[in-house]
Amino acid sequence: MVIGLFSVFTALVLIVCGVALFPMLLIVGAVVLAFSLLAGVLGLVFRVVGALLLLVLAVPLLLGGIAVAFAVAVAILHAAAPLLLLIGVIWLIVRHNRGAAPIAGSRV
User: Fold this and answer.
1) pLDDT tens digit string along 3-38?
2) Dihedral angle sign, alpha carbons of residues 9, 13, 16, 18
3) 3-class DSSP string for the chain
4) Dihedral angle, C-alpha 46, 52, 55, 57, nearest 10 °
5) Which of 53, 33, 57 is nearest to 45 (CA)?
6) How far apart are CA 106 and CA 108, in angstroms?
7) What is the pLDDT of residues 32-90, one digit of tens each?
8) For residue 91, how many C-alpha atoms fall within 13 Å in the half-sphere facing its CB?
């Protein structure tokens, strides 16, 4: 009998407390929803700002770096061209002075 009364009183207390806590639960849910929406909007804003910064800063820096690397490569090749020409001329002179290989079986 005590268990039966306890369960009835427990049910009544839960119903009363549930009804009394319902507005507070609505407020807590609204606050959680507001914070989650705020976090979502801030995340979206940070992503858009990050993408714009990437386009505004990183892409021009990348293109500038490529241009500098190309300019350095052209300068090095320009400086090395006379040296390569000299080596090529020396190679041609040595090859020309060496003469042709003798034909097999000739007595010359």
Assistant:
1) 555 677 777 777 777 666 777 878 889 999 999 999
2) negative
3) CHHHHHHHHHHHHHHHHHHHHHHHHHHHHHHHHHHHHHHHHHHHHHHHHHHHHHHHHHHHHHHHHHHHHHHHHHHHHHHHHHHHHHHHHHHHHHHHHHCCCCCCCCCC
4) -80
5) 53
6) 6
7) 999 999 999 999 999 999 999 988 999 899 999 999 999 999 999 898 999 989 999 99
8) 6
